[in-house]
Amino acid sequence: MNTPFPPSESHLDGPLFRNALQNLVDCAKIINCDPNVLERLKKPRRSIVVSIPVRMDDYSVKVFTGYRVQYNSTLGPFKGGIRYHQNVDLPEVVGLAALMTFKNSVLGLPLGGAKGGVACEPGKLSRTEKQNLTRRFTTEISHYIGPTQDIPAPDVGTDPQTMAWMMDTYSQEKGGYAQPAVVTGKPVEIGGSLGRNHATGLGVVYVAEKAFEKKGRTLKDAKIVIQGFGNVGSFAAQFAHERGAKIIAVSDVNGGIFNGDGFDVPKLMDYMKETKSVKGYPGSTPISNEALLELECDALFPCALENQIDEHNAEKIKAKIIVEGANGPVTNVATKILHDRGVFIAPDVIANGGGVIVSYFEWVQDIMSFFWDEDEINGRLKTIITKAFENVYKFQQEKNIDMRLAAMSCSVQRLEKAMLLRGLYPR
Ligand code: NAD
Question: What was the pLDDT predicted at 235?
């Protein structure tokens, strides 16, 4: 996909989207995808750009730029997070919206894909400024979102409080009647779901269990390395530890720590809460993030950032299994190198799908106004994520391709069937 986009399509010209298009084109060949479906899937359905005037604390008005890209809604309402970050731009949001489309499809959810964001530095905004920004952004996109249209959720730089403000603003626009199903990732007190906070980390571990099972093993005594000890990484560590795995190294933005005997994860989590970093944890040896990735271990969970394993370090990775907790931590080139070396990669679209699966549960519970207990939520999460894994694994075995391409193929196959049945691909 190195062909340049014409100026009218500059909003498509981002690295993330190019990568997604490459995967789409590659998998279309494998599944012999209908060419009209493929053409339709190469472009987002709707890209919304809004200006957001915000009264700042010093009484000046600053105008931010916000985006909502609704990529595809063949399978159900659009669904995807809202990101507040200084690097947010339209091509990035288009790429993320495409990824959400393919993720929701491969997971078998009745949801389309979308993403949104505002170019801002959330850490530099006061609480009032962030609330003002969120409320005005919600108003600007309110005609396009709704419980049956498009359901936002938190992402980088946004949180349950942001979703509470979005829900409140949208509800005010609907005459003041509470509309909890318009967003997910809300606080439990206003219609959020139990289990949402740890859902992605738990999903990572359910997928890891399946990957180990395919190698004839369990997590018991498995040596695991985790990059990133935030929401995803710390819960993945906790659930793997509970299953008898040895978490021998973890890291955060400040660096990593190593202990060959495995950490007492609950104690490490307490230490992290207190000091805001894993660095300096008693009984550990410091290790750089680069060296951590190359440690001898049974499984590596990259749960921090994208592009951590690329053509420069893929040959040095010693893990036998990689479970992608983060979005895009292993590049396409590295995936090929690792696959050829026999490393099993559970791709992000499945491995970190726990968050959107429980978001889906939250939406269902809000619509029913009937809430489930945590065991029910965890159980249903396991059913959905392991089924998606098994489908992709079967396809991968049949075609002898890597799991990433297999996941994309299964995803596009489902979309293709639905688009042809609905007869809407020319639209
Ligand atoms: P988070 O902000 O809670 O945690 C990120 C962690 O990565 C922190 O420990 C941070 O210190 C660490 N980190 C940052 N830069 C690093 C670096 N250079 N080297 C090593 N560690 C570094 O974020 P999160 O919610 O845990 O998300 C992590 C990844 O998972 C992201 O790619 C995100 O898109 C993806 N993801 C998250 C969810 C979710 O539900 N939270 C769902 C799907 C995907």
Answer: 97
Q: How many domains does the chain have?
A: 2
What number is the average pLDDT over the span 146-163? Answer: 96
Instruction: Collapse the DSSP code of 84 into the 3-class scheme (helix H, G, I; strand E, B; otherwise coil) and give the result.
Output: strand
Q: Answer yes or no: is 305 within a domain.
A: yes
Structural domain boundaries enclosing 101: 44-175
**Do residues 215 and 80 share a domain?**
no
Q: What is the pLDDT of residues 229-238, one digit of tens each?
A: 999 999 999 9
pLDDT of residue 296: 98
Query: Is the shortest distance between the CB of 119 and ligand 1 below 6 Å?
Result: no
The answer to whether 263 touches 286, Cβ cutoff 8 Å, is no
Rounded CA gap, 235 and 126, in Å? 29
Q: Which of 295, 330, 351 is the last residue of a domain?
A: 351
User: Ligand 1 centroid to 371 CA: how many Å?
Assistant: 28
pLDDT at 382 over 60: yes
State whether the beta carbon of 184 lies less than 6 angstroms from ligand 1.
no
Please state, as a whole number, how many other Cβ atoms lie within 10 Å of the Cβ of residue 65. Answer: 16
Domain co-membership, 276 together with 157: no
Q: Of 79, 103, 115, 130, which one is the catalytic site residue? A: 115
How many Cα atoms occupy the beta-carbon half-sphere of 31 within 13 Å?
26
Is 279 annotated as catalytic?
Answer: no
- On the question of pLDDT at 427 being above 50, the answer is no
| Same-domain check for residues 340 and 258 | yes
Q: Do 129 and 267 belong together in one domain?
A: no
Same domain, 132 and 217: no
197 Cβ closer than 6 Å to some ligand 1 atom: no
Find the 255 Cα to ligand 1 centroid distance in Å: 14
Q: Please give the Cα distance from 279 to 188 (Å, whole number).
A: 32
Q: Is the CB of 229 under 6 A from ligand 1?
A: yes
Cα–ligand 1 centroid distance for 319 (angstroms): 20
Amino acid at 186: K
Average pLDDT of the chain? 96
- Whether residue 166 is found in the same domain as residue 49: yes
Mean of pLDDT values over 12-19: 89
